[in-house]
Amino acid sequence: MTLSLWLAAPLIGLVLSLFAAGGGMIAVPLLSFGVGMPLKQAVATSLIIVACISLVALLQKKRWRLIEWRLHRFFAIGGMLGGFLGASIGLHITDKVQAIIFAVLVLFVAWWMNSGLMQKISAHAKTTPCDCRYSMLAGIGTGLVTGLLGIGGGFLIVPLLLMLGVVSYQSAVAHSLVLIISSSLVAALRYTENLDIAWYPTLWVVVLAATGTWAGSFIAAKYSSRHLQKGFSVMLTMMAGWMLYRVFS
Questions:
Q1: How far apart, in whole angstroms, are the C-alpha atoms of residue 105 and residue 26?
Q2: What is the pLDDT of residues 15-38, one digit of tens each?
Q3: How many domains is the chain partitioned into structurally?
Q4: What pLDDT shows up at residue 171?
Q5: Mean local confidence (pLDDT), 97-109
Q6: What sign for the dihedral angle of Cα 125, 126, 132, 133?
Q7: Burial class of residue 198 in the structure, from the number of CB atoms within 10 Å of its CB (0-12 exposed, 13-18 middle, 19+ buried)
Q8: How many CB atoms lie under 10 A from the CB of residue 191?
Q9: Is 69 exposed, middle or buried (0-12, 13-18, 19+ CB in 10 A)?
Q10: How many CA atoms lie within 13 A of 199 on its CB side?
Q11: Contact 26/11 with Cβ under 8 angstroms?
Q12: N or C: which end of the chain has fewer CB within 10 A?
């Protein structure tokens, strides 16, 4: 366990608690470029960490009470299929390609968080009849991203759920956390068929990140979500730039 890992690991839980997304975007570069893990091992480890911290965040505020299970089960099936497929692809592409895709996606999320689109989607969310075909397709798409890059995909799952018929942002967050757990674990199992996981640092990161979820609840009560999103988007932009620099240098 390096000092950088001790200091940065709580950020994973902090970010996931605040936004129901973003934990893997910190975990993968932290483990790969900060700790020195091979990228694919960092992706697999990130999936385990994100799944565990999502469970902590779900239990923290009893968010499972907000879940509409009919919608969830079709999205979850798609998510697990997509997670397995994404992990299979990730095992067969080069680390450089995987890192570039990761950095580009992080830049997209940084733009997305400042675009105001999430607020518009949340404002127009309403209960609509759920088309289970769309739910499964959405799950496959988000699961693919999860398995390929080692991130939970909450930044995609939450708006998709709102468009599919989940009535409120908080309910979408609850659904997202459960979906992240299932798709991340399936993808992690696919990676572990071919890779060894460093369990000791993984468990420590989980413990430290779990403390970050409690800090996230405190911070969310003190500061506006808009200011938090701007700060997070700046951090993501810097992280993506750092990754691209490391890849091409």
A1: 13
A2: 777 666 667 788 888 788 777 788
A3: 1
A4: 76
A5: 89
A6: negative
A7: middle
A8: 23
A9: exposed
A10: 2
A11: yes
A12: C
Which residue, among 148, 138, 40, 153, has the nearest Cα to 85 in the 3D structure? 148
Provide the b/e sequence for 103-128 (b: ≥16 CB within 10 Å): bebbbebbebbeeeebeebeeebeee
Give the C-alpha separation, 89 to 148, whole Å: 6
CB 33 within 8 A of CB 3: no
129: left (phi over 0), alpha (psi -120 to 50) or beta: beta
Question: Helix, strand or coil for residue 127?
Answer: coil
How many other CB atoms sit within 10 Å of the CB of residue 2? 12
DSSP string, 129-183: ---HHHHHHHHHHHHHHHHHHS---HHHHHHHHHHHT--SHHHHHHHHHHHHHHH
Q: Which of these, 121, 204, 211, lies nearest to 158 by C-alpha position?
A: 121
Residue 236 domain-assigned?
no
Query: What domain range includes position 40?
Result: 3-93+128-222
pTM of the model: 0.83
Burial 158-178 (b: 16+ CB within 10 A, else e): bbbbbbbbbeebebbbbbbbb
Is 246 within the bounds of a domain? no
Sequence letter at residue 107? L
* 181 domain residue, yes or no: yes
